[in-house]
Structures are given as structure tokens and as C-alpha cells.
Amino acid sequence: MGVSKTIWSNPSEIIRVNKPDHPVLVFSPAMLQQTAVRFIRGFPGLVTYDVKSNPAEMVIENLAAAGLRGFDVAAPDEIDLIRRLAPNCALHYHNPVRGRAEIAHAVAAGVRAWSVDSRSELTKLVALVPYENCEISVRFKLADEAGNYNPTAKFGATQELAVDLLREVEAAGFRPSLTFQPGSQVTDPMVWDRFIRAAAAIAGQAGVRLYRLNVGGGFPNHRKAGPAPNLEAIFTTIGQATGEAFGESRPALVCEPGRGLVGDAFTHITRVKALRDGGDVFLNDGIYGGLAELPLVGNIERLAVYDPEGRKREGAPLPRMIFGPTCDPVDRLPGKLALPDDLAEEDFIVFHGMGAYSAVTNTHFSGFGKMEIVTALSLV
Ligand SMILES: *Cc1c(COP(=O)(O)O)cnc(C)c1O
């Protein structure tokens, strides 16, 4: 008895044939591989994938098939996942804080690249990690760091501390590197420019020649109406700023995109449960499900509405409030979304660019959370 796997043409076909009442994430392997090749060709250094943004096995396998050779992991389970699916790829354990058992697990799995942002964590690594051929990247932050989803409240050494840590990493016999996290969904290349120049200043002050500079993730995916973000402009700025800031001592570059790599490879099909008295929309998914990120990063403007026969609604845009299915009052999308004015109960709202921080953060809160992942040739 053969196992048959359906590969759909596009979201409209899924809607017409299945009329799914639960949320469905539609994956395009072709789109993922195309974006991976764009990063590998365009980025002036090693591209690693930040596994936490979407650890689905089909994502890891398609990235490896497209030629990706490194993964940024945050926990032992992610280490085991990559060792199983992409055994020859580099693992960068760039969660700056780890427990002792987690460090031992990673050492046993052959992890050779780590990051720190504090003295106490560096002391732990120096005690527990063999230093031969191992790299420690000091993660720093900028005082004036802008960008949405600002990560500096949790991680990042001040530039002053980074100078000391970098010296200590080298003195302990490790390969000394620097890293930073510019934010997430960052569209302005100058954010990287500022960080890279700060990295050169830190290395100069420490008197340490960097083994590598890891410019983090934060690359944007296509969420706004209008053209897709210009990744190539960001790659160019990163290469130029590194050359200018470091000159002769230019380090090899690494990046660790999550969202920018996987975001546009998934489209999310949700259904309108009710139009309350013709006004507010109640969806079958919300902030405890696949739409968890929208209140943090902003609404997805790239969406389409289909009737249950898979035909696109073309009515004039009408802004509406969108609620998720749970009984929790915070379960709503920010602001209002412009939807066609002929929207009806049982229609489908299809959000594009939903590959990152969607399936992986889905919960079963309040009796919801059933989510299916299917594969399609095209996402439009
Ligand atoms: C989450 C994370 C990333 C990926 O961020 P994106 O905005 O999804 O690209 C990269 N590096 C580190 C250390 C992270 O924690």
C-alpha cells in the first residue's frame, strides 16, 4: 500500500477542495530554496539558519538541499534535530545563556561555536568547553539601538564589557569573534552599518583580531503591501561597512537569519467564523495560534480573501477589527485590517509571509490550536 502525499497547486485549490475549518499553513519548498539560494549567493560570508523561527523537518531538509551549511541553535533539542537531519553542518550555539547540562550536551554533540554576553557565562564555558578549534562570539549591543522587537533588554554586553570579554576569550585560548542581533524585520541597511562599525571599534580597543563577525538575523520578509524588502541592498551594505571599518583586519562574516529565510515560504489560511452583527471579524486563529507575532511585529498587509469556492473577493477595502477564537480579550490583531467589503461568514483570509514564528509558537490555549501544514507548488 503506497503512501500518497498531496501536493496542492495553490491556497485557492486547498480552500475549494477541503474548505478547512482549522488553520492551515501552506509550505512552498520551491520558495524556501529560492530564498536560501538568494542568501547563499548574495551574502558576503557564511549563511546559517536560526532554527527557532521554524524548526519543521521539511524546512531543515529543504535548506540543506539548497546548500545551507550552518545552523544557529538555542537548545539541546535543536542540536539533536540538526545532527539528525543535516549531520555535516556547523552548529552555532548562540543562546548566550545555557545551563551546565545543556553545555555538556552540546560539547558531546561536537558544537564548536558559542556566544556569551556576560562574565559568568564566559567562566562557565571556559570551565566546560575544550578550547581547541572552538570559537566564542561576544554578543554586544548598542546603547541607542532602535528597530522593532528590540532584543537588547534581554541580551547583549555593553561595548565596554565586550572589550573585556573579547580579550578574555582570546586569553583563554578560544577563537575570538563578535556578534550582535540588529532586531527583527529590520528593513534599514544602516542598522547593520552602525553595528559593524561598533564591532570594529570594540575589536580595536581590545587589541584583538577577530576570527569572525556574525551580523545576526533580523533580515526582513515581505509583510507590507508594495515591493519586497531589498535583501541585496542589506548584503551590499554589510560587505561595504565591514571593508571600510576593518580594512586589513577584515574578519570573515556570518549571518543567522530566521524570518528572512523562511518567512515568505509559508502562507497561512484562516477562516471567518463569524461577522458579529456585520462588523467585527472572528477568525479561527489568533494571537495564541499562528498569528502570535502580529501584535509584536505588526500586521501582515499581504493578504487575500477567498469565498468557500476558492474565488478571490474583490470588494472595496473596509477596515475591520479582527478577533481570535479564544475567550481572552487580548486575543485580537493590532489596529484594523482592510478587508473586502463583500467579506462573508465562512470566507477564508489568507496571510502571506507567515513562515516564521507561526507554527512553532502555536498553543492549545482555550481548546483551539489544531493546525495543519500542507505543501503547495505556488503560494498565490
Ligand atoms: C532569533 C534569533 C535570530 C533570528 O532572528 P530573525 O529576526 O528571525 O532573523 C538570530 N540570531 C539569534 C541569536 C536569535 O536569537
Arithmetic mean of pLDDT: 95
CATH fold-level name of the largest domain: TIM Barrel
Annotation, overall tally of beta strands: 18
- What is the CATH C-level name of the largest domain? Alpha Beta
Beta-strand portion reads 15-25%
Q: So, the CATH homologous superfamily of the largest domain? A: Alanine racemase
Task: Tell me the helix content.
Answer: 25-40%
Give the N-terminus to C-terminus distance in angstroms.
Answer: 33 Å
What is Rg?
Answer: 22 Å
Q: Low-confidence segments, ≥5 residues, pLDDT <50? A: none
Instruction: Figure out the total of helices.
Output: 11
Structural class of the secondary elements? alpha/beta
